[in-house]
Amino acid sequence: MISIMCISLAVTSGNGIAPPQRLLFPPEAISLTWAQVQHIGAGLRNVGNTCFLNATLQCLSYTPPLSNYMLAQEHSKTCDDPVLCMMCTMQDHITEVFANSGKVIKPLGEFCRGNQEDAHEFLRHIVSAMQSSCLPGPELDMRTQETSFIHQVFGGYLRSRVECLNCKAVSDTLEPFMDVALEIQTAPSVTKALEQFVRPEQLGGENAYRCSECKKMVTASKRLTIHRSSNVLTVALKRFADFSGGKLTKDVKYPEYLDLRPFMSQSQGEPEIYGLYAVLVHSGSSCDSGHYFCYIKASSGQWYKMDDSSVAVSDIRSVLSQQAYLLFYIK
C-alpha cells in the first residue's frame, strides 16, 4: 500500500506528530520552485538494461528542490564520506546532467547494476539511500530522522484511524511515507483511486480489532488519510502483479493539477494543490521486460520526453495521454 520508511508513531495530542529532539534541516530553506532557469539537461546512455534507471534519474533530476540543493553543492560541503554517499553521487549526476545540455552522458557507475529492474523499487532504493546519507549518526530518534532534507522534500504522514463500532473509541496511528502506491484495478482515474485509498474498511471476523476500552475483540472501522502532506508527492500506480509479474495495461486518467485536500485528515479547508512535473512510463507486458521512459517539465516550463539518449520537446496533451506508472507532483 505505502512506502513506510520508519516505525509507526502513536498519536497522543494536537496533530499527533511528536516534536523531534533536533532539527536536521530547516524547512524554510527548501525552495519548491527552480532557483534559476537551466538549459534542458543531457540524455542518458543506455549501457545495458538501464532504461529503468535512466527514466528514474531524469525524474529526480527535474525535481526542483532536489536539483536546487544539488546544484548549489550544499551536501558535499559538509559530507564526511563522499565515496559511499548517495547524496554526493546524486549531486555529481545532476551537476553533469545540466552541464552537458544537448549531449548524451553515461549514468554514474554507482547506479548501474546490470539487470532490468522495477523503476519504483529503484526509486525507493535511491530515496532511502539519500535519506541515510542525510543522517549524521545512527542514534537519532525517528522524529529527528524525519527532519532531514530528503524527508522534508519527499516525506509526509498517513493517519490510520480505527474506531470501535461498539463503544466508538478511536485509536490513531501515524505512519511516515515517501510515496503513495494506489490500487487501480477498479479505478478509472487517480482521483477515484485516492477515493478508494481513503475509503473506510470494516475489521471483523478473523480481522476483528481488540478494543482497549471494551477489553475484547470487536468489529471496527479502519480508515487511512493523508495527515501531513509531502512537498513532493510521488504516486505509484500498482500495475504489476506481486507474484506473476503480469501487468495491468489500462488507461488511468491523471490531472495536471491535483487537489489533495479531500483525502486528508482535515478534509475541510484551503485546497492542497499539486502540479504535475514528471511522468514515468513502462511499455511492455510484464515487469521483467519492456521499456521505461519519462516526461519531465523543465525549469523553463517546457515539457520534454526523455527516452534514454533521446531528448525531445513534448506537450501537456502528450504527457496526460500516457499509461503512467509513476507520477511526480509538487506543491
Automatic annotation (TrEMBL):
A UniProt-annotated Pfam family: UCH
Membrane-spanning segments: none
InterPro entries reported for this sequence: Papain-like_cys_pep_sf, Peptidase_C19, Peptidase_C19_UCH, USP, USP_CS
Top-level taxonomic group: Eukaryota
GO molecular function: cysteine-type deubiquitinase activity
Gene Ontology CC terms, in alphabetical order: cytosol; nucleus
GO terms (BP aspect): protein deubiquitination; regulation of apoptotic process
Stretches assigned to the USP domain: 42-331
Protein name: USP domain-containing protein
